[in-house]
Recover the amino acids of this structure.
C-alpha cells in the first residue's frame, strides 16, 4: 500500500509540474482505482469487526 501511495503521489507531483503523457494518465487512473478498492476492503473489514450490543452503558464510580 505504501508503494502504491508513493507512486500516486509521484504522478500527482509530475502532473502539477510538467504534465503527464497518456501512459502515465492511464497508470494514475489504474493506481487510484486499485487504492480505492483496497481502502474499501479495509474499511469494510473494520466495520465487520465492530460488535453491536443493546446493553445500556453503566456508570462506575
Amino acid at each position: 500500500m505504501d508503494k502504491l501511495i508513493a507512486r500516486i503521489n509521484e504522478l500527482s507531483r509530475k502532473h502539477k509540474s510538467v504534465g503527464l503523457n497518456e501512459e502515465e494518465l492511464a497508470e494514475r487512473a489504474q493506481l487510484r482505482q486499485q487504492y480505492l478498492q483496497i481502502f474499501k476492503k479495509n474499511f469494510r473489514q473494520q466495520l465487520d469487526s465492530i460488535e453491536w450490543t443493546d446493553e445500556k452503558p453503566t456508570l462506575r464510580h
Notes: DSSP finds two helices and no strands in the chain. The two ends are 44 Å apart (CA to CA). Residues 22-48 form the longest helix (27 residues).
